[in-house]
Specification:
The chain contains 16 helices and nine strands. The chain has helices spanning 7-31, 49-59, 64-75, 100-103, 121-130, 137-161, 186-190, 204-207, 216-231, 236-242, 250-270, 274-290, 332-343, 372-384, 388-405, 425-435, and strands at residues 47-48, 87-88, 170-171, 247-248, 295-296, 301-302, 305-306, 410-411, 418-419. The longest helix is centred in the first third of the chain and has 25 residues, at 7-31. The two termini are 21 Å apart. The chain binds alpha-D-glucopyranose.
Length: 436
């Protein structure tokens, strides 16, 4: 670092970038199961919600039809309530636990989990329809067909996960945040009674080094929450009223707010009905009004809020920096200062958790590692609000991580080593869509 590259080294990097595009395409093809893409074989052998959304952006770089098929498959698993599940179990597989027999979630048209995941899909579909190579008649027809499902899913978030009208979204399970073992969830999850979980066998720690994965006590609580939801028949009102884990997530909130703005733009382009669009605008206003609840002056950041105890998390996470992506600009300068301070503690941006905090672990999943698709969103948001220099630093950092370690699930922010599963679809997709 800090050394200028010679022209030979430049050539070398250019060659490697070209070769990586080919390898990234291969990762998507290897994980392709026909109508959906698995995040990586074995460790995650089904369709995951936000993985598929990002993966569609990757497919779109060389096969637009396949990109659309990815998102159509996901939406075909939507529940009558509007919820789009976090996992769809399209095939039987024994390398993942917990499977459909544990979830007992038969509320939708296909076997699935009973919770959702960060709703980035509307932003992806808007990008497919209105982005650089979009705007064909096919794109218009496909986006039009997806619009109502997206609108119902967004409404579901407001009804099911914000029944008290706070303008910020709660999650009912750490997995619903997509950031499974973030330190933020430790305290709210500690209250969960996991005594009824019984014996079970994890499959993840047979595939990936246990030091990179959540602990056993985390898994016990994950399963206790699944059991509670299943016992309620995944009824949204019962979960909002009685789920022991009920925590406002700045990640889901920012991603939904951005998705609502994109949905509005998409609806306008499609010439949708004024009343329909008014309901989207109403939800945007509601969230704009609520966003600042997550501002935590002591932490100098947006943080999660345990709605059962009223306690705020004590440190920021990578999702704190998604405010700009959500179109919230009041705190941009404070957040950029915060990012500058983080960057003094690790050479690669953006770690998933505050690197100055004692709970930071550079190689344990969401307690430190860098995730390429989170960087893509943070950087996009910062570029939108005129923080081009930081947007660029994050993009270059992500590129360097891939140049160093290829396409793993995530990366160590201190050494650039790969963390978690390998041959990972969303990392490859982000390379194709954003970095190559
Ligand atoms: C892990 C991640 C989650 C992701 C899933 C599949 O559970 O935390 O965000 O969707 O793996 O890649």
């Amino acid at each position: 670092m800090g050394r200028h590259m010679s022209s030979d080294e430049h050539v070398d990097v250019d060659d490697r970038i070209a070769a990586l595009a080919q390898r990234a395409k291969q990762v998507l093809e290897d994980n392709d199961r026909g109508s959906y893409t698995v995040p990586t074989a074995k460790l995650y052998p089904f369709q995951w919600n936000w993985d598929s959304a990002f993966v569609a952006l990757g497919w779109a770089q060389f096969d637009r039809e396949r990109a659309w098929l990815e998102v159509e498959t996901l939406l075909s698993a939507q529940w009558p309530s509007g919820m789009v599940p976090h996992i769809v179990f399209w095939a039987e597989q024994d390398t993942y636990f917990p499977g459909p027999d544990v979830w007992r979630a038969d509320n939708g048209p296909h076997p699935s989990s009973g919770i959702s995941q960060p709703p980035v899909l509307a932003s992806v579909i808007t990008q497919l329809a209105l982005g650089d190579s979009g705007e064909s008649e096919t794109d218009r027809a496909k986006a039009d067909a997806a619009f109502d499902s997206l609108n119902r899913w967004h409404q579901w978030w407001h009804t099911a996960r914000d029944p008290k009208d706070l303008g910020v979204m709660a999650i009912s399970h750490p997995w619903e945040s997509g950031r499974d073992n973030l330190p933020d969830w430790d305290i709210p999850a500690a209250a969960i009674d996991a005594s009824g979980v019984g014996h079970y066998e994890r499959r993840d720690t047979k595939l990936v080094d246990a030091s990179m994965r959540p602990h056993k006590h985390d898994y016990d609580r994950y399963l206790a929450l699944v059991k509670f939801g299943a016992d309620q028949g995944w009824d949204d009102a019962a979960i909002a009223a009685g789920n022991e884990f009920w925590v406002v997530d700045p990640g889901v909130t920012a991603i939904l707010l951005r998705a609502e703005r994109d949905l509005l733009r998409l609806g306008q382009w499609l010439g949708r009905d004024v009343d329909e669009l008014a309901s989207v605008s109403g939800r945007i206003e509601r969230m704009e009004g609520g966003y600042d609840r997550m501002w935590n002056a002591a932490a100098g950041s947006y943080t999660s809020i345990d709605l059962r105890s009223g306690e705020y998390a004590t440190a920021g996470t990578s999702a704190s920096f998604l405010a700009a992506y959500a179109g919230i600009t009041e705190r941009t300068s404070e957040l950029v200062d915060e990012l500058a301070s983080w960057s003094e503690h690790c050479p690669f941006l953006v770690p998933s958790f505050d690197p100055r905090d004692s709970r930071f672990e550079p190689n344990r999943y969401w307690r430190g590692p860098v995730w390429a698709m989170v960087n893509y969103m943070i950087s996009t948001g910062l570029a939108d609000v005129g923080e081009g220099e930081w947007a660029d630093r994050i993009r270059v950092s992500t590129r360097d991580l891939v140049l160093e370690s290829g396409f793993p699930e995530s990366f160590s922010p201190t050494t650039a080593e790969s963390v978690g599963g390998l041959h990972f679809a969303w990392t490859a997709a982000i390379w194709l869509a954003w970095l190559s």
